[in-house]
Structure formats: C-alpha cells, structure tokens
Amino acid sequence: MTIGVLALQGDFAEHRAMLARMGVDSREVRKVDDLNGVDALIIPGGESTTIGKLMARYGLDAAIRARAQQGMPIYGTCAGLILLAKDIEGSDQPRLGLMDIAVVRNAFGRQIESFEADIPFAPTPDQPVRGVFIRAPIISRVGAGVQVLSAFDNKIVAVQQGNLLATAFHPELTDDTRVHRYFLTLVK
Amino acid sequence: MSTHVSTHEQESRYEVQKATWRTKVGLAEMLRGGVIMDVVNAEQARIAEEAGAVAVMALERVPADIRREGGVARMSDPVVIEEIMNAVTIPVMAKCRIGHFAEAMILEALGVDFIDESEVLTPADEEHHVNKHAFKTPFVCGARDLGEALRRVGEGAAMIRTKGEAGTGNIVEAVRHMRAIMRDIRRIHSAPEDELMAIAKQLQAPYDLVVEVHQTGRLPVPNFSAGGVATPADAALMMWLGAEAVFVGSGIFKSSNPEARARAIVDAVTYYREPEMLAEISKGLGEAMPSLDVRKLADEELMAVRGW
Questions:
Q1: pLDDT tens, A20-35?
Q2: B55 touches chain A (CB under 8 A)
Q3: What pLDDT, on the 0 to 100 scale, is given for residue B296?
Q4: 8 Å CB contact of A114 and B53
Q5: ipTM for this model
Q6: Which of residues 110-149 of A touch B (CB under 8 A)?
Q7: Which residues of B touch A45 (CB under 8 A)?
Q8: Integer Cα distance of B272 and B252 in angstroms
Q9: Which residues in chain A have Cβ-Cβ distances shorter than 8 Å to B89?
Q10: Which of A79, B107, B123, B207 has fewest C-beta within 10 Å?
Q11: Whole-number Å distance between alpha carbons of B220 and B208
C-alpha cells in the first residue's frame, strides 16, 4: 500500500513523517503521473487558495476527481478539507468540490485565535484526540450522505462521506496516529 | 436534505489553549513550499493572492525603496496594514524594527498573523532583540548563520529566514547564509554528543537547541529564504539549498510584469526539482527588478549586518 501526499504546498512533510512512523509507504504527488500506483491520497494543511490554483494550473484537479470517483480514498486536513468541500462560503476559489458540505474559512478568526483542545472523534469514542486548529475552517452545512465525526461547541470539525475524510484540525502536528489509522481502514 | 449548524459564539465546555508553541510553529509549517510576497497596498495584495502567494508582507515601502530613500525606516502605518488585511483572505505579516517591542505590540493589536522582526527596518535596539515568547503572535527573524538562527529561536522565533541582502535583487547573500546554516546543521547532526557543548560555545547558541539540531538534523522551526530573490531560478536555487519556502520582497512589484513574475515564482517553488518545467515557467517574464552589486555597497548600506 502506498499513500500519496499532495505536495504542491503546505505541511506535506509532516503527513509523510507520520505515515513513516506508522510503517506506511508514502509518495509526494506534484504531477498527474505521480498519482499512478497510489492507493489513497492525503491533502495536507497549507494555504487552500495556493494549493487550489496549482492543482488547476497543472491538471491535478481533474485527475484527482477522476480517481476519487473510481473510489480512491482521500483525507484532507484544514486546507485539504476546504478543497474537498462543494461550497466555500464567500469564495469562488478553485477546489475539488467532492464532498457535499459547506465550509467557512478562518472561522475562528486570525492566527492569534489559533488553538489546541482535546475534542471528541467518533471512531475513537473512549479517548479524545488533540485538535490543533490553525486559522482553521469549520463545516457549516453537511449533506445527506455526510457523517459528522467530530463536533465541539456546536461546530462541526470532522466529517466523512464514503471514501472521503476531512478534518479542520491537524493530527499530523501531534504524535497521535489514530486519525491516520482510521483513514487507512478506508483503503482497500 | 441538509442540516444547518449554528456557529454563534458561546462559552466553551472544552479546555482551549490559544497561541501555544505548536500553533505558532504550526502556521509556519503551513506556509512551507510557498511564496510570501511584499505588498504596499490592497491592489498589490490581491495580485499576490491571485498569483498563489501563501501570505503577504504588508509594508509602506519595499526594501529597494527603503534603500533608495534612506532615513529611519519604521513599522508601517496601521492604515496600510489594515487595508491589506481587509483585501485578502491569506495570512498577512508585518515588520517591526529589531528590538522594538512596542511596534510589535501594535502589530499584535492589529491582528497580523506573523510579525517579522526585520533588519530591513532601522534597528531600535543594538543589543537586544524582542522577547518573542511574550507575544501571542508568531515571529519570524532573519539569520546569517546557525548561531544567529538558534539565538532567535531561543528568544521565541517560530520561523527563521535567511537575511540575504534585501532590495538588491542579488541572491548571493541569501545563498551564503543558507549554505552557512545548512553546513552547520550537518556538522552538528554528525558530531559526537560530547562535542555539543563546545559547538554551542563556538556558535554562541543555546545548548538545548544545539542538542535538538543534533538529534533531528534540522532547525527547530521552519527554515525559509529571503533577501535578493528576483527570478524563478533564484527561488528554485534556494529550495535546492534547503529553504522550505521563499520570501520575495522587491523582486515582484519592482519588475516589469508583476502578475506573471509572481505566478512564475510560485510555480518554481513547487516544481524546483523539474528543469523542463522551470524552463517553461521562466519564459517571457519581462525585466527583473533593478539590481545592485552587494560588493559595491558601503558598509552603512548593508542591512544583513543589523542585529546579531
């Protein structure tokens, strides 16, 4: 099994380091050809407008959409969540638009409001996960086929729709591998 | 059927910790592989965002103009910074003078996302830098070598960038600084543990941070490049040398076609390992910014020597 990590911009190295700690092979995806032989894809944190523009300039948006429609699992963190969303409130920025959700960017405010907290995560009901939120988005609408995996203070911060997983927070900035382990259960 | 979720403010039942070291360094991590562009007004900020900048540096004057006009260079007018913050959705950085913690307090009150304690402005304190641990806003600082980088991290910098020689369009100093930093990281990483204290003494660097570099083989915080980047090839060169992202100051808006050059530098940072793509990216960008030979600058004109 090889997990692709979209490496156009952002904290892709942290995702690869986490996968390496778990003993999972990974590969950087920068060009359409890099998707060949990849069983699943992680879209990292970063600047969603930058990653979206680069995806569109180099044809990765269409290629990733096609693979997703064939069932390739995708996990997006923060910027990755924004890029997976069908609706981004107040923005027409380029996106994949694969998940039937709406997101609000920078929903907690500017960097000075960035925070950490122990929050629930449905696949690990006994133990909370450490949520690291950096200029983070929230999910403001979920469609019928979307399952909410984490919400706190009435804010939805993790969702799943079939093979697509997205979190507003950054497990890759912690030592806790459980969210990544949960994602790997979606990979056949 | 859709569910609408309320997002109004309320008392949290959760123990929320703001402005932790992890959230500060985390924002720097999110900027990796990106380009941070100097802008002086809302229009330039929008051009930068449209080109794919990961953040903008809000300024009244870019370094090339600071150099030309002389006099004391200070923090920008808050009106300029707020205009830029209101124009874009990407992070906005702003500069304070070295050691000028009152300017830094004002920048934090404005809500900028990153503060650059910058040698491009005239230093306010020739002995002490800002105690950056005392702020909620993360800081970036310039460095010419590893000792300087680790002293700044010791004071709380969440990101390091090479100083280069800003406003010259000449990459030679940024290359010198990045090579020096990477050379000393490799030396410490491969040194036996019993030599680390002597290395800390020689570099004038905090011992615990030298130990951390020994263990990890990298800076404790992201290592970016700044100072003299004028072309996509300059940006690619810095990425090859170990930069994790690139600041472009005067290089974009002092060139003849800022839109095309900004986009080309963004693409070059992502595809720096692909010579054929870089060749395409570098085509037809018009004139680069007017440049200066660093060796012909008088000592008092050098910015990189400010701070220690």
A1: 999 999 999 999 999 9
A2: yes
A3: 87
A4: no
A5: 0.97
A6: 110-119, 132-135, 138-144
A7: 29-30
A8: 18
A9: 49, 91, 105-106
A10: B207
A11: 11
Report chain B's mean pLDDT, rounded to a whole number.
94
In this model, does residue B7 exceed pLDDT 50?
A: no
CA–CA distance, B25 with B32 (Å, rounded to integer): 11
Given a cut of 70, whether residue B39 has pLDDT beyond it is yes
B3, pLDDT greater than 70? no
Give Cβ neighbours of residue B246 (< 8 Å, ≥ 6 apart): B34, B35, B36, B224, B225, B226, B229, B235, B238, B239, B265, B269
CA distance B237 to B227: 13
Is the overall model pTM greater than 0.90, yes or no?
Answer: yes
Provide the chain A residues 47-76 that lie in CB contact (below 8 A) with chain B: 47, 49-50, 53-54, 57
Per-residue pLDDT reduced to its tens digit, A148-186: 999 999 999 999 999 999 999 999 999 999 999 999 999
Mutation target vs A (from B10, B22, B108; most A CBs, 10 A cutoff): B22
The Cα-based distances of B181 to B30, B122, B149 in angstroms read 22, 24, 8
Nearest to A149 by CA among A135, A131, A136, A172: A131
Is B142 within 8 Å of B119 (Cβ atoms)? yes
Q: Check whether B248 has a pLDDT greater than 60.
A: yes
